[in-house]
Amino acid sequence: KMPERVKIVEVGPRDGLQNESARVPVAVKVELIERLAKAGLPVVEAGAFVSPKWVPQMADSAEVFRTLQKRPGTTYSTLIPNLRGLEAAIAAGVSEIAVFVSASEGFSLKNIACSRAESLARLRDVCDLAITRGIRVRGYVSCIAGCPYDGEVPPSEVAVMARELLAMGCYEVSLGDTIGVGTAAQIRNVIGEVTTTIPRERIAMHFHDTYGQGIANVLASIEEGIATFDSSVAGLGGCPYAPGASGNIATEDLLYLLHGLGISTGADLQAVAETGGWISDILGRRNESRAGRALLAQ
Ligand code: HMG
Ligand code: MG
């Protein structure tokens, strides 16, 4: 029972650029987001209202968000760690946010300087205020297949955190293999555990490609009935608090897989590939999308 349609959440402008050492000008970020939206990607995570002391790359997110020419029908989301971030996002006029927790204690402490329990308490207030203001909230659970600090992460912990996020009002939970260590068997196992109590329609998968397993893990997830995936143009990124982790699966590679399976996405692969080539050149980095490199070489 393959889905006929898959929703892609493009996270390059956030998960990608948060890990770039070079300073990326606002105008480049804005052009990147606008090109991705124009290419037909339905959701673009456009920035993060996190502490600039922690992630300086995202410090200009309010300016990016305000400058952006928003297309009707595209959702522009931003990552929010606390009430302070939400207030800044409200002032910038966001209509959707994403909150994040970790399935492991170690990553929670390193990434947001608090325990999982504290983060849940904090995010309940964030969700309450957001929902009161008519802002939709998406949730992330990190380290679903392993933690850089704690090692193995039991799937039951992933399920607990996902349920907590849904209970506080998230409409969808994205399960992140933050360090890209998961294999297809392990991912099937996590999805199996989580979907014993959560409907598949509420689950998205978020793969990093550190061990080259991302596309295989997407296929395994599709076979488990998952129909929403996060990806990053040109495979940009990593996570500043997950040393050695590489970028997300590349949006171009994901589109190539899905379209090859006859699954519709609404996105134009060629346009995404051109955007991937363009941003890689600007950043002076290698284009990490294999499909993107192949298409651009033609
Ligand atoms: P803290 O140091 O415990 O908190 O950080 P604090 O309240 O003491 O704040 C420190 C400073 O930041 C203060 O400034 C605050 O005012 C300021 P000072 O008084 O020293 O001048 N501050 C803020 N400024 C702007 N916006 C805010 C904000 N909050 C505080 N919202 C905190 C706690 C949560 C703030 C910090 O740890 C943080 O921002 N962490 C974010 C880290 C991050 O962005 N990581 C990457 C995203 S997660 C990820 O990539 C995984 C994901 O992709 C899924 C996956 O792959 O698994 C989503
Ligand atoms: Mg990520």
TrEMBL record:
UniProt catalytic activity: (3S)-3-hydroxy-3-methylglutaryl-CoA = acetoacetate + acetyl-CoA
Gene Ontology MF, one: lyase activity
Pathway annotation: Metabolic intermediate metabolism; (S)-3-hydroxy-3-methylglutaryl-CoA degradation; acetoacetate from (S)-3-hydroxy-3-methylglutaryl-CoA: step 1/1
Pfam families hit by this protein: HMGL-like
Domain of life: Bacteria
Domain Pyruvate carboxyltransferase, first and last residues per copy: 6-273
Keywords of the record: Lyase, Metal-binding
Enzyme Commission number: 4.1.3.4
Database matches in InterPro entries: Aldolase_TIM, HMG_CoA_lyase_AS, HMGL, PYR_CT
Root EC class: lyase
PANTHER family: HYDROXYMETHYLGLUTARYL-COA LYASE (PTHR42738:SF7)
Homology family: Belongs to the HMG-CoA lyase family.
Cross-referenced NCBIfam families: PRK05692.1
Protein's recorded name: hydroxymethylglutaryl-CoA lyase
